[in-house]
Structure formats: structure tokens, C-alpha cells
Amino acid sequence: MSKRDLLDFKGLTIKEIEALIDRALYFKKNKFTEHESHLLRGKSIGLFFEKPSTRTRVAFEAAIVRLGGHPIFLTPDNTQTNRGETIADTARVLSSYLHAIVIRTFEQTRVVEWAKSATIPVINGLSDLCHPCQILADFLTIFERRGHLRGLNLTYIGDDNNIAYSLKEGGAIVGMNVTIVSPKDSAPSQGNLLNIKKAATDADILYTDTWVSMGREHEEMRDNMLKAMFHDYQINQQIVDYAKPDCLVMHCLPAHRGEEITDAVMNGKNSVIFEQAANRLPMHQAILELALRGSSCDSPSSGLQ
Ligand code: CP
Ligand code: NVA
Fold first, then answer.
1. Which ligand 1 atom is nearest residue 104's CA?
2. Is residue 131 annotated as part of the catalytic site, yes or no?
3. Is the CB of 134 within 6 Å of ligand 1?
4. Considering 97, 179, 231, 265, which has the largest number of Cβ atoms within 10 A of its Cβ?
């Protein structure tokens, strides 16, 4: 059987996303059961991270331990990669010790190179292009709150980045209407506030993320120019008021309170931001199961379609 990588949403079907949500719900309900603790018994899973992480790293390490496996955290500094050992050689060697590896890196081509060179499953734990593990956990959060994904209107306000990309890619598969409003995409003649109001009106979900992603800091303009560019692209109470009264406010975290989102909205009644973060753990368990077993879509029953 060929190995099962998770590099982006392209390799995932609606049935598999449905099954991942089912399995994540199962893992939430059945903590530390016999089944759960045997799945990765005797298996070592690597995490090779070239960027910082709180949620992705810790939720994957905890997920691996809950499934009975052993996580090994690797960085360029504590391996030979910073001394010039290639991805191809590193991936080939690590494939003989590990059963799967989670990669957090810069260009998507690096994730693809890992996947091509490794004989074990490769999971994208965030690249400059996309963040599929985050958005799968977000779909779990939305499904728990709404009972379905198809037909929901999700409006993303902010930087058109890796989160926005995965929302668009994943949203297209599950049938969500994803609208991105970003200063980088807006024609200068369009009024920002008018655009944002139009996109936020009747939204089921409002989503935002940092204005400057990891690794982009040096490319971005001076702080005051950045703030001026993104000034209107903030989720605040006025924007929430345009959306449906029970709209879900989402952020992948880490947040810059007072920039892309206000304190009040982040702590407010519409916010599911900390549910999103908590859902990384059961979704990572489901993702590991999919990667290690090849498929977890035997008996989907979420009814996403
Ligand atoms: N949302 C997310 O991936 O967070 P970390 O960068 O802390 O992993
Ligand atoms: N867009 C952000 C997401 C962090 C989880 C970044 O890439 O830094």
C-alpha cells in the first residue's frame, strides 16, 4: 500500500474529512480507552519544526502519547540540517527510524520534498502556503456548533495567508462559502469598510489571523505602515454586528489582541477561539490514525454532505 501523506487539502475527499471529524469526536468522548492507547504502540513519530509552535507541537506530542506512541521533536539546530545535510538524505535516514513525521517549514516545496524522499507518511504542520491540520480542527469546531458545514458562509478578514488558503481549499471540498477580504487583494478604488461590511453581512463564521505570518517579518513594511494598511481589517464588535447574531468568531492563534481582533470580541459570546485550539488534540489523533492506517473512512456518519 502506498504511504498516506497529508500535505494540503488536495489529497482529501469529503468522505475522509467526514471520517476525520467522526474519529476526532470519538477521541474526545473516549479518552484513554484500551483502543486509544494501542494504536501507535511501539511507534515513533518525528516532528521536524523550522518555525516556533505552541499548539501544533504540543497537541501532536500529546496526541502521539495518548495513542501509545513516542514523539521525537527535531529542529534544524538539534539535527545536522543546519550544517547542510539535505532534506532528501535526512528524510531517507529518518524513514528507517520513524513511522511518520510532521513537518513545519517555509516553502511548500520543502514539504513536498520531504514527502518525495521519505518512505513514511509526511504531515504538513504548517508551511508558508497552507495549514491543513488547523483547518481540519476548525471544521470539527464548526461541525460541533452547527451540525453541518455545507452551505455555511465563512468570511475571513485580514492577511491573505496560509490560513486563508487552507480555508479556501478545505471549504471548496466541504461546500462552505468562503470569502476572503484582504487589503492585498482589494482594488484601491474599493472602500475597505464597505467591502468588509458587505462580506461580513449575514456571515455564519468570521475568521481572522495575524497580519504578519512567521518568516514574513523581514519582508513586511514598517510597523506603522502595516498598521495603516490593515487598520480596517480588524474583527471588532461593529463587524460582529453585521454578521448573523449567533455567528462564530474564529482565530487560529496566536492572536495579537488589539490588532486583527479586539479583546472584547476575542473574549465575547460569539468567540469559539479556545474551542478551536482545544480541538487540535483530537483532530491530530484522527490525522495520525489516517496517516498510519492509510484510511479512516470505513464508517462515516457525520452527514456533512
Ligand atoms: N495555530 C497554530 O498552529 O498555532 P502554533 O503556531 O502555536 O502551533
Ligand atoms: N499565519 C500564521 C499562522 C500561525 C498558526 C503564520 O503562519 O504565522
1. 8
2. yes
3. yes
4. 265
Known catalytic residue at 276: no
| pLDDT tens-digit map of 228-253 | 889 899 999 999 999 999 999 999 99
- 213 CB within 6 A, ligand 1: no
- Residue 36, amino acid: E
- Contacts (Cβ under 8 Å, ≥6 apart) of 7: 108, 111, 112, 115, 122, 124, 132
Residue 257 a catalytic site member = no
Pairing outcome for strands 153-157 and 100-104: unpaired
As a residue count, the chain comes to 305
pTM above 0.85, yes or no: yes
Task: Give the ligand whose atoms come closest to the C-alpha of residue 61.
Answer: 1
Any atom of ligand 1 within 6 Å of the Cβ of 62:
no
Check whether 298 has a pLDDT greater than 90: no
252 catalytic residue (yes or no): yes
- Whether a cis peptide bond, with omega within 30° of 0, leads into 254 is yes
Report CA(256)–ligand 2 centroid distance (Å).
12
Segment among 106-120, 263-277, 290-304 with least mean pLDDT: 290-304
Among 55, 66, 99, 104, the active-site one is 104
Check whether 301 has a pLDDT greater than 50: no
CA distance 147 to 143: 5
Q: Is 209 a catalytic residue?
A: yes
- Predicted confidence (pLDDT) per residue in 46-64, tens digit: 999 999 999 999 999 999 9
Please name each of the domains of the chain with its CATH number: 14-131+279-293 (3.40.50.1370), 133-277 (3.40.50.1370)
- 278 within 8 A of 140, measured Cβ to Cβ: no
